[in-house]
Amino acid sequence: MTLLQDTAAPLATAAVSLRHVTKRFGAGPNVLDDVSLDVAEGEFLCLLGASGCGKSTLLAILAGLDAPTTGTVAVPGGRPALMFQEPALFPWLTASQNIELALRLNGTRGKQARRDRAGELLDLVRLHDAGTKRVHELSGGMRQRVAMARALAQDSRVLLMDEPFAALDAITRDVLHEELVRIRREQDLTVVFVTHNVREAVRLGDRVALLSSRPGRVAKQYDVQIAQPRRIESPEVAALSVAITDDLRAEIRRHADAA
Amino acid sequence: MTLVRDDLASLEAGLDALETTAEPRRSRLRAYASATWPPLLALLLLVAAWQALYSSGVKEPYQLPSPLDVWTALKETATSGDLAEGVFNSLRRGGLGFLASVALGTPLGLLLARVRPVRRMFGPLISGLQSLPSVAWVPAAIIWFGLSDAAIYAVVLLGAVPSIANGMVSGIDQVPPLYQRVGRVLGARGLTAARFVLLPAAMPGYVAGLRQGWAFSWRSLMAAELIAYSPELGLGLGQLLERGRQLSDMALVFSGILAILFVGIAVELCVFAPLERRVLRRRGLLQW
Asked: Is residue A217 within 8 angstroms of chain B, CB to CB?
C-alpha cells in the first residue's frame, strides 16, 4: 500500500502542484516562502508544522479561497473540496439537505437525483439513518462525517483537510482515521491533510512534509513506508513519529535563537 | 492487529449510539397548556386588584369604572358593530403597513449590511430613527397628506421600516464567517451565496426584527389613528379610543385600550411567536 516516489523530481501526473509559492498579507512578512510541492494522483500528503508555518494559508490557496503573492498553483482536476476543523454544517438544514445543497451548487440537476446521491454519500460515511436529523442532533464525530460526505458531494478528485479531527475526542478520532483511509481508498482520492499532530500525520500519510515556521517553507519530507492498515499505537508509527518530532523540535528551537 | 471492515462499522455504530442522546420530546399540547395558565392566573389577579381598587372608591366611578362596566361597554361596542369595524380597519391598516415595511425594510437592511459606504453613511441614522417615537411624525404626515389613509401609512412605515432593516443588519452581522467560506468552497458566489447561505443564516436576527417591526407598526398606527381623527377615515381602534375621550366615557376608553392590547397580543401569539419558535427549534436553539 505504501507509495514510493522520488519527491525531488516534478511529477507528470500531479493532482496538485505548487511552484515557488510565496504569500504575504499586505506589507507584512512572508507567511509562505518559496514553497514547491507536488502531490501525485491518489497520494495522501500530510502537511505538518508548528504554529505560524502557514499550513492553513497553504490550504486556502489550494482551495482557491486566496491567491499566492507570487508563484503558481495548479490543480488540474478543478476546484478541490475542503474540510475545516469545525464541521460547519448549516444548522437550518438536515444532514441530507446539507449534502443536497453541495450537490445543487455543484450543478447536479433534479431534486430526486440529488436526494438519491445524498443517500449514497451518507451510506458511504455509514450514516444512512441520519439523513433526516438536524445538525444539533448529531454528535461531533457524526457531524464531521456528514461534512466529509458534503465534501465528497463536490465530486472532486482532490480533498483538502484542515485539521478536521482536531476538535474530536481520541476514540472518535481514531475511528475516523480508519474511516478516512477506507473512503480515500474506495474513492481513489488525492488528499492533502494539514495537522500539527505528528502521529496522526504518520498514521495517515503516504508522505509527510514538515513545514518550518515564519516563514513557512518545506523543511523536510518523509516517505511513510508502513503498510496500511496502520494503527496509531504501532511501534513503526511511533518510531517514525519520534524522528519527525525531533526534526520539528529543532525547527521550533531555531526561533528561540532568533528571539 | 487491525480492524476488519465490519468491525469498524459496528464500532462506529456503537460510538454513534453512545454519543447521541434522544431528545426528550414534550408533547406540544402539554407545553402550550403549561405556558397558558400562568398568564391567565396573572390576568385574574389583575382584575381582582382592579375590582378592589374600584370598591375602595379612591377614584370617582366616571374616572375609574369597574371591570363589569368596562365589560358592558365592550359588549355594547361589539353588538353595535363598532368593535368589529375598528378591529378590522386597524388590522387592515396595520397589516398592509407592516407588509409594505417588510418590502422596504428588507432590501434596505441588505444594502446596509453588505455595502460598506451605505452602512457608514446611513447606519447611525437608521439606528437613531428606531428610538424616535413615531408619534413625532404624525403632525408632519398630516401636513403632507392631510387627514387620510396615506398619512396613517406614512407614520406606520416611518415607525417600522428602521427596525426591520436593523433586524436584517444584525441578522447578517451575526452570520459566522465560516459559513460564507464554506459557501465559497462549495461554489456559491454572489446572489447564489446570498440565497443559499447568507439569508438562511441570517434568519433568526431577521425574524426578531420582523417581530419588533410589527410591534412598531401597531404602536405607530395607534398614535396615528388617535390624532388623525376624521369621519372620512373609517373607524379604527385608535379612533374608537378618541371617541371615548371626547364623550368622557371612561368605560369606552378602557374597552378601546383592552381591544388594542388584545389584538397586539393575538397577532404576536398567532404569527410571530410560532414563526420565531420554528426558526429557533430547527437550529436546536430551543427545547420545545
From this structure: no
